Amino acid sequence: MVEDSDFEPYIVCFACNWCTYTGSDQAGVSRMQRPADVRIIRLMCSGRMEPRYAIEALKNGADGVIIGACHLGDCHYLEGNEKAVRRFSVINSFMEQYGMNPKRFQFWHISASEGAEFTEHIKEYVAELKKIGPNPRKHIAAKEFKKLEEVVI
Amino acid sequence: MSLEKPKPRVAVYICHCGKNIADVIDMDEITEYAKHIPNVVSAKNYKFMCSNAGQDLIAEDLKSGKIDRVVVAACSPLMHEETYRRVLRENNFNEFFFEQANIREHASWVNLRDHKGAMDIAKDHVKMAVAKVSNDRPLIRQKVKVTQEALIVGAGITGMFAALDLANKYKVHLVERTPTIGGHMAQLDKTFPTMDCSACITTPKMVEVGRHPNINLLTYSEIENVDLNVGNFEVQVRKKSRRINHLICTGCGTCGEVCPITVPNEFDYNMGYRRAAYVPFPQAIPAQYTIDIKNCIECKLCVDACEVNAIDFNQEDEIIDLKVGSIIIATGNDIFDPSTLYCYGYQKYKNVLIAIEMERLLSSTGPTLGKVIKPSDHKTPKRIGFLQCVGSRDFHEGTHKYCSRVCCMYAIKQARQFKEKYPDSEVFIFYIDMRTFGKGYEEFYEIAAREYGINFIRGRIGDVFENNDGSLIIRGSDTLLAEKYEIEVDMLILSTAIEARKDADEVSRFFGVQFSEDGFFMEAHPKLKPVDSLSTGIFIAGTCQAPRDIPDAVAQAKAAASSADNFMFSGEVEIEPYYSMVQPEICSGCRSCVQLCPYDAISFDETTNTADINAIKCKGCGVCVASCPSNAIIQNHFTRNQILSEVRALKPWENYIKEN
Fold this sequence. Notes:
The complex is a heterodimer.
Chain A: E1 11-16, H1 20-29, E2 38-43, H2 51-59, E3 64-69, H3 80-89, H4 91-97, E4 105-109, H5 115-132, H6 138-144
Parallel strand pairs in A: 1-2, 1-3, 3-4
Helix pairs in contact in A: 1-5
Chain B: E1 10-15, H1 27-35, E2 40-46, H2 52-64, E3 69-74, H3 77-90, E4 98-102, H4 104-108, H5 115-134, E5 142-145, E6 149-153, H6 157-167, E7 171-175, E8 190-191, E9 196-197, H7 198-211, E10 215-218, E11 221-227, E12 233-239, H8 254-258, E13 262-264, E14 273-275, E15 277-278, E16 290-291, H9 301-305, E17 318-324, E18 326-329, E19 333-335, E20 352-354, H10 355-362, E21 383-390, H11 407-421, E22 426-431, H12 441-450, E23 455-458, E24 461-466, E25 472-478, E26 483-489, E27 491-496, E28 498-500, H13 504-511, E29 538-540, H14 550-569, E30 572-575, E31 580-582, H15 592-596, E32 602-605, E33 610-613, H16 623-627, E34 633-635, H17 640-649, H18 654-659
Parallel strand pairs in B: 1-2, 1-3, 3-4, 6-7, 6-18, 7-10, 18-29, 20-27, 21-22, 21-27, 22-23
Antiparallel strand pairs in B: 5-30, 8-9, 11-12, 12-17, 13-14, 15-16, 19-28, 24-25, 25-26, 31-34, 32-33
Helix pairs in contact in B: 2-3, 5-17, 6-7, 6-14, 10-11, 11-12
């Protein structure tokens, strides 16, 4: 299963509205081609990102999770990205406890002008994920999949 | 039972964006797919959703009462979110019952050749948007009063024009780092293509700025701190001590005469000298003197010489607090330093100059009073060469890929000026392409070539060598004739690039302005919002945004002034209601959020033992939401359930299981 060469990784990216999301827009406007593996979810700040979202995505069978934050010192909300850095330096140690390869979780600093860097990073990350192989939880996630929960608030 | 939440009825609209999306993603397939997403009641596609007809399509459906939430799958929400929200607003629906799925920048454009991959991403993005919109709640935008004052940072030609335009209506604070206003334009001798004297156009404007009753001129001052409250920016400006009391100084110049210290004059690009007590140039505004404390030896000769007793060595920096409604950033540009490009020999060979140095030599107010001399022996050169694209259109480390736009024109201008002064001389311009794009520019170039007899040689210089007498041998290859050339000139002028200010990152940090790839400040949209930054109420103009010539910089100044006016005029600004709220019944009173808030928006109520968030102060970053151990804080429009529902909408195993 690991050597599956046709395997296309499935990556969920949580992007800060002011840097990575804009940077990714810039990559699009410049028509920088990248593997079609990334789904981007917009947040206002990387500081809004909760570990729970990353874990939820991995639990659902995503092969990689990226958090896109501003460079340190450039945060639109003064220091949200620094708080995110502190919060997510812990998650790597948890990853193994959860039975995940820590490489499935990435924290990147991509500014609004770095569409090219974003594209490059993704290409490298996809190559790396192809080596690591698919998320072992995919089968379980498929079985456990519940219908979209409709929740109040 | 009525307690049951009504099921959201979502309409999905998919935009072809001409061929931008439709060429990659099959419209029928994705529309059919969208119809089967839970909560979706209708799915349509249209050529241009942002057009009037596209908006009418949404409006009609809204009026029919069959739908109550809208998803548009098109470009980036940063581009058209506002357009569609307006449609909802105009049809009496809450504008926050809308989500935009980005299937252009994030799907079709980055996967032009992988149609299936793009389709998968587009489907997921639509699905996520539907999941999010189903959990959207109605929100109301708050209105905040806007201070009727403006701050302009940088008093070059851009800052001055913006200030003059705004000052007729508002109080304007104009902050400039150097002792005088005027910027780069005051350093120039003549301007292309009209060849009118730069000082003759700039100085009257400088006087006007200096005298305007509504302009508070803060020269020799720097921004110390900015509090980014939209509409009510609180700015601290450090007014550096000049050691001279400006209210008393008459600008007579006695202190400069007695000052024993001479230092290179930055205004003359270090080719002339000034004293430690100085005005940068005679027409400076304000015309009062400044003591440059870095070079001053505190001999205090000037204290005795000053007849009005204006000199005060105890004067200290002053911090001025301003409250302004809008900010225009016009911090300008730096000039590329070519000393790292060894092959051109700048600062290695005496007779290699950069263009701004040539400009000061040509200027009648310059160090040589308009006489062009060779630095090696102070004689007039007979043959000079100009090398174009130094530092621009270059792919080497430390240079810039972009075109600096003005170099072709200023090189032709300087060549013509030199030819006018010394008709017997010979002038060469070594270029890659002559880019004379503006109004009257091509004609200017034609005349230079035909009537002035300036030699244009296509092909960058490969090497420069120095003879014993200081003259230079230039080697390169003429790419039109396809042959090598070796030309001897007395002086070589490098047409250096315009580059972003070295300390631009500091400015960007103060004002929350983003950079483009080239290091200049980024506009909100390259075509439709050329002077807006991504932060509401902050505008960017002039060469801090991209290289440009004087007419363009002035046009931008006026555009920024009118945008700032537009922003302040209504007296109110609506802010996005993305603020966070504490649910007091869940809050355990641990106070972990209180210290985390960078805006001091969270207070702690001792009586109820819960935290409370000030919605006006809150900027909506959501740091507190993520940190709350009891999950008691909600961020509007980005609630936990909304984000989780987006994540849960994805089925990362779908393709994989099918493959196996």
